[in-house]
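Design a sequence for this backbone.
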């Protein structure tokens, strides 16, 4: 629920691209600001990926990573998404993040 509220506080993708609520939805690519939307932060400096990892929402974390969320961003307290997953005992998230590390080596 926290992740949904995080994004509800932001402009919708349609508004972000066109600034017009009545416009037809458009798919965003990196040039149109998808990275900016993915890595936008709440008042604590957390991104949607921070929140997904903190709360253990594996499917959301997988989607955000697939779309290019930055795994290395830190919040105002110095936490990465991975450190929040560890701090909150989110083994499913830690396993997923470990597979990403292993794949990049």
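Sequence:
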């Amino acid at each position: 629920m926290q992740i949904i509220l995080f994004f509800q506080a932001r402009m919708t993708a349609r508004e972000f691209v066109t600034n017009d609520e009545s416009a037809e939805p458009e798919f965003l690519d990196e040039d149109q600001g998808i990275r900016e939307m993915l890595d936008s932060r709440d008042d604590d400096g957390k991104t949607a990926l921070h929140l997904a990892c903190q709360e253990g929402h594996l499917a959301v974390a997988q989607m955000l990573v697939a779309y290019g969320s930055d795994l290395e961003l830190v919040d105002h307290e110095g936490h990465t998404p991975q450190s929040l997953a560890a701090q909150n005992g989110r083994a499913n998230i830690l396993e997923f993040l470990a597979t990403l590390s292993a794949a990049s080596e």
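The helical segments are 2-8, 13-18, 34-38, 48-55, 58-66, 81-87, 91-104.
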